[in-house]
Amino acid sequence: MNIIKENYTEEDKICIATKIKNISKERIKEEYQELKTIGINANQKSERCRVGNNIVDYFSFVKRLETKGKYNVNYFDFIVNIEEFEKKKFIKNMLNYYEREKNKKNTKNKFIVLKEIYNICISAINIIRPLVYMEIYTKYNQNEKCEKPKCILDFCAGWGGAVVAASALNIPKYIGIEINIELYEPYNKLCSFLKEEGSKTQVEMYFEDALKTDYSKLEYDFVFTSPPYYFIQKYKNNVLYKDKKDMNNNFYIPLFRETHKYLQKGGYYILNINKEIYENVCIPLLGVANDIFTYKKSKRQNNYNEMVYMWVR
Prior knowledge:
With about 325 residues, the chain is α/β, with parallel strands linked by helices. About 45% of the residues lie in helices and about 10% in strands.
């Protein structure tokens, strides 16, 4: 399985991404209508239900493939340098396993095979499913006396699942902050698509460092986000911190403090973070969470539980 090109153009990357996931415009239109139909009943869907994922991938999959994981390489780096990576025993074993067993009938093309091996051996750059966002957005607003959020703040907006969910629910307003400026055009196209499909959600996207945003100028009554964990993935434009203490003091603490400070009274502040960040940063800063629940995901992604923590302002 030789990859002979030394590097890839943007056109090459799009072509390769399409060979891994060939998603049509018609399909994402269908999925968006499915999300709208599901609405506040997202909690009834299985953790394996992937409705809405294709919408996110249609607009941002190439950029996910460019995100660096272990060894400081992204998917394209991996396939360009596959001959070098084959020298690593565990990667060579995986390649052999796919050739002998998992893909012996050649039902998967080489780019899909290498993507699956990259996920296992290097890093799986996953998205949060729009259904997960929809479930969380409506989790505390199910009774007749509680209205849905008026404005959601997502200060680590990521790949776009949050704005898809907010739009499918017709949340009045969504504010996303994303440091990766290379997602500017994908978000523009995604938001245009959502508007074309009838979404009434007002979307404000800021492509800047969330630490530099003036939250006093924003009005929001609901926060949910999944900030980057310690050193797991290297997203474009992210600051590199020397250790966990440095990241706590100069990223998590000031960011959580400021975004919580300007949340409207009675609003919900919700974070998908690991236990270490919760104990070392959140409890001293925000106190013990009012609610803690398991992040809903397929066990096929990984075999450990991620937790979501909620505070009422």
